[in-house]
Specification:
Length: 589
């Protein structure tokens, strides 16, 4: 028997029976039955067993399944003891779908795909050793945080860690595109390279000239953004991570771009197949001016990116549209169109009801909250990456006349339910930050120099939170209630504090910072001023009270010692303004 020769399986039928109420009651126990059947019928007969840890390790090394460089960083005794300790924790899957997902997508299989070489415990062992990078104490801490499901590496990291034939470790990438054929070609190639590594890719198209714009003075020559979208969709479909994870991409467009309606039309169910995009995700960058005009029931103007760049000397995305709106409208050298703002809002809302798209990023709100300088111009597939980029200039031979900065999101997630059960929340978060640091350190994506350059300068990490709704449900807190808002703010405050504290510690150890830290709100202390002292208190029996005063301590320590944090931290706060309309809590499993 093998995974390609399964017979008389019952777990799919049992799982489907959950959807058939009995006497008005959903038979949730069928999920447990499906889980048990899956483990008995699928996993156990097809998992290759070994007589000892020594035999298993030698088999993986001899058959080129495991990263030998990782193994060489540890003693055999430590690796064996850690392996045994992980199994002694008696992990159990909580549902059929969790187990099915793990064994189908994450568990290492033989080269012919017929047998499993890993249980979840084995994958945790590989991740702990890999991200521990030879540090036994850190490896043990990582194993503990993962097997208790307090911390979960992002999908590419979790999938690839410790494998000799691994894909990339990074979850998401952001690329910006200039209004130039050389740069468009370079962007498509970059999308292929990044998708091959298993990361999702967000691409900013707002700088591209609209359909019908002139090229070399010839009117109606430009094709606009839609054909580029089609090329990108095909690129993502073609490139995947060794066949294990399909490529995924999102394209962002400004609500002030003349192709906005054509852009939205590509996701409509009745769209012509020539323009319809099926797997590509859509996102909008929306200005305060749009909301102002919609509220007043006025027209909103769209401006030719080509003309704007000629007038302002910089790409369309880097012009503050809200600030310059009246000047743009009055400028006779800038071609423009208009539509009623409420009509456009209705088009956006209807498409969201129909397809779930577009994502919405409130661009002015984001840049007001940006503590690190530069201009944020777009986001990613989940609208949670909010980091500044710098444009590039590409020569005819596809080399760079000016190398800009694009983004890699080195992501991991905490589980809200299990995090709040942690005996040491600070240790949990600090351990996660150390793992993410290694992802950033080991990422050297030379096939996409702009991403490589941005990562080298900024060392960006992103620690997310998943399962917030579950935490509220478990504690019988109504979603959206004042109590839920307060506890959510508190959780993210704790995460923010401990991530900054660990980043500060890493900066001290390495005597380095992210680029232009001294110009940031972190360095000046302004970033911390939005947290009133004593606003929140974290109380738990037998534990020390945690308040925002500790943030002030960290701020003063950084200022007086000249210590500079090396990492951006992307978390949600209790600010009144919404950062975006489609934030996801996590991009990991």
């Amino acid at each position: 028997m093998s995974l390609k020769d399964l017979e008389n399986i019952t777990y799919f039928r049992l799982n489907n029976e959950i959807n058939i109420p009995r006497e008005g009651i959903i038979p949730l126990h069928k999920d447990k039955e499906a889980l048990e059947a899956f483990l008995i019928e699928n996993v156990e007969p097809n998992y290759i067993k070994f007589d000892s840890f020594h035999d298993r390790l030698n088999y993986l090394i001899d058959n080129d399944y495991i990263d030998v460089d990782m193994i060489d960083k540890y003693s055999f005794d430590f690796m064996e003891n850690l392996y045994n300790w992980i199994y002694e924790q008696n992990f159990e899957f909580g549902s059929f779908m969790a187990a099915y997902k793990f064994y189908q997508q994450y568990a290492l299989k033989t080269n012919d795909g017929e047998y499993y070489l890993e249980h979840l415990e084995d994958r945790v062992w590989n991740n702990a050793l890999y991200f521990g990078n030879g540090n036994e104490e850190l490896a043990k801490s990582l194993a503990e945080e993962m097997i208790t499901q307090r911390y979960q590496p992002a999908t590419p990291s979790y999938l690839s860690a410790g494998r000799s034939r691994a894909g990339g470790m990074v979850s998401c990438f952001l690329l910006t595109t200039a209004d130039d054929m050389n740069d468009i070609g370079r962007t498509i190639n970059s999308a292929l390279q990044l998708s091959k590594q298993g990361g999702g890719v967000g691409i900013n198209l707002s700088n591209l000239r609209e359909a019908g714009a002139p090229i070399k003075g010839i009117q109606n020559a430009a094709s606009g953004v839609v054909p580029v979208m089609k090329l990108l969709e095909d690129s993502f479909s073609y490139a995947n991570q060794l066949g294990q994870r399909q490529g995924a991409g999102a394209v962002y467009l400004s609500v002030h771009h003349p192709d906005i309606l054509a852009f939205l039309s590509t996701k409509k169910e009745n769209a012509d197949e020539k323009i319809r995009v099926k797997t590509l995700s859509l996102g909008l960058t929306v200005t305060d001016k749009f909301y102002e005009l919609a509220k007043a029931n006025k027209d909103i103007y769209q401006f030719s990116p080509y003309d704007v760049e000629r007038e302002y000397g910089k790409p369309f995305s880097y012009v503050d549209i809200t600030k310059e709106y009246d000047n743009l409208v009055a400028n006779p050298n800038i071609k423009k169109t208009y539509i009623n703002a409420r009509v456009l809002e209705e088009e956006i809302s209807k498409l969201q009801q129909e397809s779930g798209y577009p994502y919405v990023m409130n661009i002015d709100t984001v840049n007001r909250a940006n503590p690190a300088g530069g201009k944020v111009i777009m986001s990613n597939l989940c609208s949670e990456i909010l980091q500044a980029q710098e444009p590039s200039l590409v020569n005819n031979d596809q080399t760079y006349a000016k190398l800009g900065q694009d983004i890699s999101c080195n992501l991991g997630s905490l589980n809200a339910v299990n995090l709040m059960k942690s005996p040491d929340i600070e240790k949990t978060i600090s351990t996660a930050m150390r793992a993410l640091t290694y992802v950033s350190d080991s990422s050297n994506i030379d096939t996409v120099p702009t991403v490589q350059h941005g990562n080298a300068l900024n060392h960006t990490t992103a620690l997310g939170l998943m399962g917030l709704h579950s935490y509220l449900a478990v504690n019988q807190i109504e979603y959206g209630s004042p109590e839920s808002i307060e506890i959510t703010s508190l959780i993210f405050l704790l995460m923010n504090y401990y991530t900054l504290k660990e980043s500060n510690k890493i900066a001290i150890e390495r005597n380095t910072t992210f680029e232009d830290f001294d110009k940031s709100d972190y360095a000046s202390g302004v970033y911390f001023d939005k947290y009133p002292e004593g606003m929140y208190e974290w109380k738990k029996p037998g534990e020390t009270k945690q308040t925002t005063r500790d943030l002030s301590i960290l701020r003063n320590y950084a200022y007086n010692r000249g210590i500079k944090t090396i990492y951006y931290v992307r978390t949600f706060t209790d600010d009144g303004d919404s950062i975006g309309a489609n934030e996801c809590e996590s991009c990991s499993i």
